[in-house]
């Protein structure tokens, strides 16, 4: 009888342990999964916003390169007679805001030719974007040459609060000069100190505006891109890829990308799709996450629209509950 009681006690004790472990596991697994999902969701959102910021900075920097490289011949003729570049205050730059343009050529005024753009601490575009640092454009040969190539070096080139360093190679299509292929290896330093290394293949196609060299208000171009980036935070390196599924469109008289769709994968998994709109000049884009949830992005502030208000409301609610 005593033996039976002992056996029963053992069984009950074992069941109690199993139940306790089961309850412990059931209570903690959802929290762990939720935490992991929250962390992944937060990381996905941050990667998406970073990509929006880098795209804006990249497009603006390439637009600068396009203008000055396209007018290389005229710049060189001005330089030889001692006339320096100044842009009308009604166009790209604000009053008294232009980069310092310096030219250097090979022997006998030949090639390679180098155009150095020095933006100093603050050169302000008409749309309010602030540029700084410098860009160096080397043109290897006349455009008619089979060896024609442009290389670009970015030296602490700033677009608002983002800094770009690195280089790019530009090939202009020999048959249709409206096409350019950008191959780049760039390092982006964000405002919070994060560093992102990104390689990309970008194809530009001019649709309108190349004939009116000094007027960018009629410029229209589209961009296709395939890129890969790496970012290391707290010792963990994440790799993400960006692919343009609908070409990105930019208008010369609009600060924002107005059209196009981009898909982003993080460590091999699709995390978001960014839709820049229907061609209208506005500051809105829409991110759709992996769960199909849509969130508006404010391109003017490069953040999720209403995010601060949501955080403030959440803090108020929590404060109310505590009281």
Can you give me a brief rundown of this structure?
With 323 residues, the chain is of the alpha+beta class.
Beta content: 35-45%
What would you call the shape?
globular
User: Structural class per helix/strand content?
Assistant: alpha+beta
Biggest sheet descriptor: 14 strands, antiparallel
What series of H and E elements makes up the topology?
HHEEEEEEEEEEEEEEH
What's the arrangement of strands in the largest beta sheet? 1-2-3-4-5-6-7-8-9-10-11-12-13-14
Share of helix, binned: 25-40%
What's the β-strand tally?
A: 14
Structurally, the number of domains stands at 1
Radius of gyration: 27 Å
**Separation, N- and C-terminal Cα atoms:** 58 Å
Stretches where pLDDT is under 50 for at least 5 consecutive residues are 1-37, 309-323
- Arithmetic mean of pLDDT: 82
Number of helices: 3
Give a written overview of the molecule.
- This protein has one domain.
- The longest helix is centred in the N-terminal third of the chain and has 69 residues, at 2-70.
- Strands 1-2-3-4-5-6-7-8-9-10-11-12-13-14 form a 14-stranded antiparallel beta sheet.
- The model is unreliable at 1-37 and 309-323 (pLDDT under 50).
- It is 29% helix and 42% strand.
- By secondary structure, the protein is α+β, with helices and mostly antiparallel strands.
Write the layout of secondary structure elements.
Layout: H1 2-70, H2 72-80, E1 100-104, E2 113-124, E3 130-139, E4 150-159, E5 162-172, E6 179-189, E7 195-208, E8 220-233, E9 236-251, E10 257-266, E11 269-278, E12 284-289, E13 294-298, E14 303-304, H3 307-322
Antiparallel strand pairs: 1-2, 2-3, 3-4, 4-5, 5-6, 6-7, 7-8, 8-9, 9-10, 10-11, 11-12, 12-13, 13-14
């Amino acid at each position: 009888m005593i033996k039976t009681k002992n056996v029963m006690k053992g069984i009950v004790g074992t069941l109690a342990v199993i139940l306790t472990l089961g309850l412990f596991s059931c209570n903690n697994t959802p929290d762990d999964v939720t935490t992991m999902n929250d962390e992944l969701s937060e990381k996905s959102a941050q990667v998406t916003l970073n990509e929006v910021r880098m795209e804006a900075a990249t497009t603006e920097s390439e637009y600068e390169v396009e203008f000055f490289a396209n007018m290389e011949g005229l710049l060189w003729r001005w330089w030889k007679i001692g006339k320096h570049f100044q842009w009308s205050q009604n166009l790209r730059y604000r009053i008294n805001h232009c980069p310092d343009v310096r030219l250097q050529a090979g022997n006998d005024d030949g090639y390679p030719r180098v155009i150095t753009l020095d933006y100093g601490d603050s050169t302000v575009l008409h749309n309010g974007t602030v540029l700084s640092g410098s860009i160096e454009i080397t043109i290897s040969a006349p455009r008619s040459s089979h060896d024609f190539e442009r290389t670009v070096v970015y030296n602490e080139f700033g677009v608002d609060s983002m800094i770009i360093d690195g280089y790019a190679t530009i090939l202009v299509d020999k048959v249709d000069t409206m096409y350019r292929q950008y191959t780049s290896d760039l390092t982006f330093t964000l405002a919070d100190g994060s560093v992102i290394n990104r390689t990309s293949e970008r194809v530009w196609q001019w649709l309108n505006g190349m004939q009116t060299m000094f007027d960018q208000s009629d410029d229209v171009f589209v961009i296709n891109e395939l890129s890969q980036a790496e970012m290391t935070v707290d010792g963990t390196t994440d790799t993400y890829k960006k692919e343009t599924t609908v070409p990105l469109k930019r208008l010369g008289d609009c600060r924002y990308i107005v059209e196009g769709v981009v898909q982003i994968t993080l460590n091999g998994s699709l995390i978001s799709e960014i839709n820049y709109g229907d061609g209208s000049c506005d500051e809105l884009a829409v991110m759709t996450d992996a769960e199909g949830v849509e969130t508006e992005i404010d391109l003017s502030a490069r953040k999720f629209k209403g995010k601060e208000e949501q955080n403030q409301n959440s803090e108020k609610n929590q404060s109310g509950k505590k009281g």
